[in-house]
TrEMBL record:
HAMAP family: Maf. Its main location: cytoplasm. SUPFAM superfamilies: ITPase-like (SSF52972). This is dTTP/UTP pyrophosphatase. GO terms for biological process: nucleotide metabolic process. It is found in: Cytoplasm. GO terms for molecular function: nucleoside triphosphate diphosphatase activity.
Length: 198
């Protein structure tokens, strides 16, 4: 049965490959509309929206996986930075403290006319070391050659798998891969429970 990842995230695709699951990538074009302000519910809603949007246009039997990740601090969702000053304020807020990363996942299995849908949310607590202004400025200045700054496309303004994570993540409680955007082992076991893995 074909597996479709309803996400354009290269990290999610990489994690699916690490699980040994070959998948086609088809990012959802659905407008992101949420009815909740609670991080857990927001990511579940958005993962479901993306998953079902792609499942709707997929022909034949398939497994479609949608995911959405947010960073939250004291219950408030921190999205992707809108610019360097927004990124700076996030770093100042998070340094020396614990925040949460939530990833919602929805899996839709379509076989003939039947459709089974499972949604869940995974949470990881992440603690940063305290950072000096110089360290924050140094991180914000990091840029890939010819590409956008490393902080610009990441929820909360950082990637745990980057130089930043190596230097400033003091510890985590929960799934490391969840912070990268997909609770990989949970996805694997959910797929196993759905009977779609060989």
């Amino acid at each position: 049965m074909k597996v479709i990842l309803a996400s354009g995230s290269p990290r999610r695709r990489e994690l699916m490959e690490m699980l040994g699951i070959r998948c086609k990538v088809q990012a959802s074009g659905a407008e992101e509309v949420v009815t909740s302000a609670e991080p857990e519910k927001v990511v579940e809603e958005l993962s479901r929206l993306k998953c079902l949007d792609v499942a709707e246009i997929t022909e034949g039997d398939a497994v479609v996986i949608g995911a959405d990740t947010v960073v939250a601090f004291e219950g408030e969702i921190l999205g992707k930075p809108k610019g360097i000053e927004h990124a700076r304020s996030m770093m100042q807020q998070l340094q020396g403290r614990v925040h949460q990363v939530y990833t919602g996942v929805t899996i839709a299995v379509t076989e003939g006319d039947a459709k089974r849908v499972v949604s869940f949310c995974d949470r990881t607590d992440v603690e940063f070391y305290a950072m000096t202004e110089e360290e924050i400025n140094g991180y914000l200045a990091l840029e890939k050659e010819g590409e956008a700054p490393v902080w610009s496309d990441k929820a909360g303004g950082y990637g745990i798998q980057t130089v930043f994570g190596t230097k400033f993540v003091k510890g985590i409680q929960g799934d490391y891969y969840n912070v990268m955007g997909l609770p990989a082992s949970r996805v694997y076991h959910e797929l196993k429970n759905l009977g779609v893995l060989e």
